[in-house]
TrEMBL record:
Molecular function GO terms recorded: undecaprenyl-diphosphatase activity
InterPro entries registered for this protein in UniProt: PAP2/HPO, PAP2/HPO_sf, UPP_Pase
Protein name per UniProt: undecaprenyl-diphosphate phosphatase
The Phosphatidic acid phosphatase type 2/haloperoxidase domain, residue ranges: 59-168
GO cellular component labels: plasma membrane
Organism, scientific name: Rouxiella silvae
Alphabetic keyword roster: Hydrolase, Membrane, Transmembrane, Transmembrane helix
Residues that span the membrane, as ranges: 25-47, 129-147, 153-174
Length: 201
């Protein structure tokens, strides 16, 4: 498995001779594209048509549970099974400054794949597929710039699947209670913006 990891990394990783425009795209994907997660979560909770807002907030709630569980699992795995990043091993080329912490599974990969899978399972096929494409782009970019191994991204995908499964089980058992509590917290915290009509009730 480690030999396959090294072989795939060598195939994907950029070199000093790689096109600058491609490296710029990879750096944008690796650094900035992940912000689509909080932007969509906040937007879907605060705004939407009246007859769709309950569905959107259920999606946001389940996605948040999945993300919290998946990121906790990822952090636990990285502590229990530390794995050096490529640049720590002196392998390949690195184009992005990063702390030399454990690489497996990728936090970026875990977050974006959990998010994409949540939309695939609980929203629409087209939105899930689109986010999976974005997730693959982020996964490729993190390997391309030299801060992750390919298997780190596969690990993130698998942990994301586990997070969505956990969230669905929790929602089946406690979904109505969780939704009610979150709605009460939201209405209390956002009373003024709701009254002004800036956000959906």
């Amino acid at each position: 498995m480690e030999q396959l990891n090294h072989m795939l990394f060598t195939w994907i990783n950029a070199t000093p001779d790689s096109p600058k425009w491609l490296l710029d795209i990879a750096l944008f994907l690796a650094n900035d594209m992940i912000f689509i997660v909080p932007v969509l979560i906040i937007g879907l909770w605060l705004w939407g048509r009246h007859n769709h807002i309950a569905f959107q907030r259920e999606l946001v709630s389940k996605t948040a549970i999945a993300l919290i569980f998946a990121m906790t699992c990822a952090k636990t795995l990285s502590e229990l099974f530390p794995h050096a990043r490529p640049f720590v091993e002196g392998f390949g080329f690195n184009f992005l400054h990063h702390s030399p912490d454990s690489s497996f599974p990728s936090d970026h990969g875990t977050a974006i794949f959990t998010f994409a899978l949540a939309f695939l399972f609980w929203h629409r096929l087209w939105s899930g597929v689109l986010l999976l494409v974005i997730g693959i782009g982020i996964a490729w970019s993190r390997v391309y710039v030299g801060v992750h191994w390919p298997m780190d991204m596969l690990g993130g995908f698998l942990v994301g699947m586990l997070g969505c499964l956990f969230s669905q089980l929790v929602w089946n058992l406690f979904g109505s209670q969780i939704g009610s509590v979150l709605e009460k917290i939201y209405r209390f915290s956002f009373a003024l913006p709701i009254r002004k009509g800036w956000v959906q009730e």
